[in-house]
Amino acid sequence: MSQAFDVVVIGAGPGGYIAAIRAAQLGFKTACIEGWKNPKQQLKLGGTCLNVGCIPSKALLASSESYEHVQHGLEEHGITVGGAKLDLGKMQARKDSIVDKMTKGIEFLFKKNKITWLHGFGAFASGGEGGYTLEVTNDGKKETVQAKYVIIATGSKARHLPNVPVDNVQVCDNEGALAFGTVPKKLGVIGAGVIGLELGSVWRRLGAEVTVLEALPAFLGAADESIAKEAAKVFAKQGLGIQTGIKVDKVTTRKTGVVVDYTNDKGLAQKLECDKLIVSIGRIPNTDGLGAVTVGLKVDARGFVEVDGHCRTNLPNVFAIGDVVRGPMLAHKAEDEGVLVAEIIAGQKPHMDYDTIPWIIYTSPEIAWVGKTEQQCKAEGLAVRTGQFPFSINGRALGTGQTAGFVKIIADAATDRVVGMHILHAHASDLIQEGVTTMEFKGAAEDIARIVHGHPTLSEVVREAALALDKRSLNS
Questions:
Q1: EC number(s) of the enzyme (predicted)?
Q2: Residue 455 designated active-site
Q3: Lower CB density within 10 Å: C or N end of the chain?
Q4: pTM
């Protein structure tokens, strides 16, 4: 007889494991299906984010930034360091140990909350309003489980170029790009999105000559134009080569490396020769093999599960969250949707505001924003006022030597309500939360301006940007 559960979650990434934990907290008998294995063929929880995404990339970003700082950032502090050496094996081992600690932490949380981990990959076998039968496949072995409620959290995978095989040795997606055994002399990156910029930054700091090829005509088109322009200047000064408006014609792998034939924004044929190539052109949802057709689950032409504003699918008692549904493919968005769905199942009435989800790119300096860009406001015909303030005259930023960037706040011209905040700075990922909180509570720029901010802190720049909307900045 197969096991029966109140809630079964398919996938244990950030959305899935959080959904399982919250469901268990609410008293449901809960199981989570996950069959992902690391290179050592060990079953691991955490999905792409913890294993080959957010967590390992941030570990390498921190290590590579420390290496570059020792080489170039200490002299102004009166500190001279000679003979700094890179031990890439040790750096990679540190990254792997952090990943291992995090994934084991989820295992502990599953045991603590009495969540059953079903080893394998899940698919619908049958079901309807009375419940669902799910098939769990692990190394050819199959078992079935019963679920009253199902939460689909199968995440996404890297999109690859047509006719360009990814071997994760020479041509890599995010998984291979996190596991280089040596620093490539020349590295090509196709795609100037979040992953491309972050991984390109890692290997540039460690000594690679990096060229980023972007198909879109503008750099970071999703970001506010003023932030994108300033970031492009900073990255160019750092030595990160970025070309926009290109068209990839052909990718050829050789024993000695990879050759990318492309057409630049002026229509001229170009050739990029590199030791390794990272393909970072977005991600696609993991819905193949889910058994959607078997039970009539609606999946659109791009592979996304169709849901309403509360993550309900067209099937009774079946929900879908995270990268597998509409909206930004962000771990924190998936986590909050996991909580939302578990609480809906429990009969609660949770709330989630998709307009206040922060975006973060962990380059150096970091780029973060929440809400609308100035160009979006213009396109929508929304009259706004903007305030901007640089870190270059902030005492705390000067003390740490992290003076690049600025804060920009956008407010409705009629109501002063904050509709967007955009930050370029080494600590943008932390500073953006003031904008998120203000917008979540429908706050005004004047609210930020009137709140006492500690001195000396980087947060004072946020306040000065709010004051700048009325041309009353106190320190400029």
A1: 1.8.1.4
A2: yes
A3: N
A4: 0.96
